[in-house]
Amino acid sequence: MTVPTMRRPQRRRGEARSWPQLRLMAGLAGLLLLLPGSNALGHALLHDAAVAEAVVVRFHFPDGDKPYFDAYRVMAPDATRPFQSGRINARGEMSFRPDRPGAWRVVVATEDGHGVEMQVEVGPEGVVTAGGGDANPAQAARLTAGIGYLLGVFGIIALWRGRRARHPPA
Amino acid sequence: MHIPDGLISPQTYLPALVVAVPLWWWAARGLAHQVGDEALPRLAVFTALAFVLSSLMLPLPGGTSGHAIGVGLLALVFGPWVAFLAYTLVLILQALVMGAGGLTALPVNALAMGFIGAWTAYLLFHLLRPVHADFAVLAAVFVAVLFSALLVALVLGLQPLIAQGPDGSPRFFPFGWSVTLPAILLPHLFIGAAEAALTLLVWRHARRRCWIPSACGREA
Fold first, then answer.
1. Which of the listed residues A5, A103, A142, B32 has the most CB atoms within 10 Å of its CB?
2. Which residue of chain B comes nearest to A154, CA vs CA?
3. Contact (CB, 8 A) for B177 and B153
């Protein structure tokens, strides 16, 4: 014995959808249009470009070479995690926009163990009040000064020895 | 090759300071006996030479640059303890005047270059001297430069392992041994060869002038 079943009448190709279906689809389309853009594009990385002031730090070695594309990190005042990290650009510079006053640190490390840790003092208005170490006096002058200090230290030792020889401790 | 401030952790430079201070004290204690009044101006000149050698950057193949160390010559002429002390003075002045190295990194730099470099050069020279004196100078200085460079590379490459931030990122030097060993050792193959050749020239001059007591005694 076969049980008679109610078969849903199949819609033939080209036959119009029923009104309730059309209303549902139109409603969903309208809802999508009403959603804010940020939600509708949830995986997009939106962006805008702005011209703003930033602290620019320039690096160079004493011989004029620059640490192109070497890694750096920026530490905010009293922070343990880097505020920013990246690589020095093709001009030997990096820049960052401090969001609070205080002593900011920029640490550069090259793969062969050279580098620097510099401090940038940022004032309440975002103005750099101190920072940078360098350029002057020139390398040759510093080298000469270093030799002078060295010879001076040994000269002092020689004088001290001579004095001690003339006046031996009792 | 000087490690600057900010690249090594307190876990590194504080133990290094603990090791270095007694060695400095011991070296200073024997300075008066090892360097007489006549040799003191000579030591000043040799120390100044080491200062210049380790301050001048030399262009190297591959677009990088480096500088000699200069401690090998001090060790061969004045002995390792005097060399260690004199080179520490060089490192202090380089940190204060040249901006190379740093005061927190001073113990590590002094141990790696001043102590290990000087003792390696001194011991290897005396080991190889019976074979051939000139070869002994070349080999001693070359190996001393490489040993110092190896130690610096190991210390730097250790930093990402022992000093990390809360998120596991390196707090000080960010590169491991796979980067530091080739980046530091390969350029120092050239630097070591050049420094060995220069040291041999000056050492021969010092020997002719009887500035090296042991060499003078042997050849007199």
1. A142
2. B44
3. yes
In SS3 terms, B105-150 reads as CHHHHHHHHHHHHHHHHHHHHHHHCCCCHHHHHHHHHHHHHHHHHH
Helix intervals (H) in B35-111: 40-53, 71-78, 80-93, 106-109
Tell me the pLDDT tens digit for each residue of B53-109: 888 877 666 556 678 888 999 999 999 999 999 999 999 998 888 878 888 999 999
Token output for A87: 């690589």
3-state SS track over A23-60: HHHHHHHHHHHHCCHHHHCCCCCCCCCCCCCCEEEECC
- A135 interface with B at CB cutoff 8 Å: no
DSSP B196: H
Cβ contact A119:A104 at 8 Å: yes
Q: With a threshold of 0.95, does the pTM exceed it?
A: no
Distance CA B176, CA A154 (A): 40
Q: Look-up: residue for tokens 């220069």?
A: B198
Question: Residue A134 above 60 pLDDT?
Answer: no
For residues B49 and B35, what is the distance between their CA atoms, to the nearest angstrom?
17
Q: Do residues B205 and B70 make contact, with C-beta atoms less than 8 angstroms apart?
A: no
Q: Which residues are bridge partners to A96 per DSSP?
A: A55
B37/A107 CB distance under 8 A? no
Distance of CA B64 to the CA centre of its chain: 20
Tokens at B137, concatenated: 């100078």
Does an H or E element contain A102, and which? strand A102-109
For residues A129 and B173, what is the distance between their CA atoms, to the nearest angstrom? 27
A contacts of B89 (beta carbons < 8 Å): 150, 153
CB contact under 8 A, B6 and A147: no
Average pLDDT over residues B169-192: 88
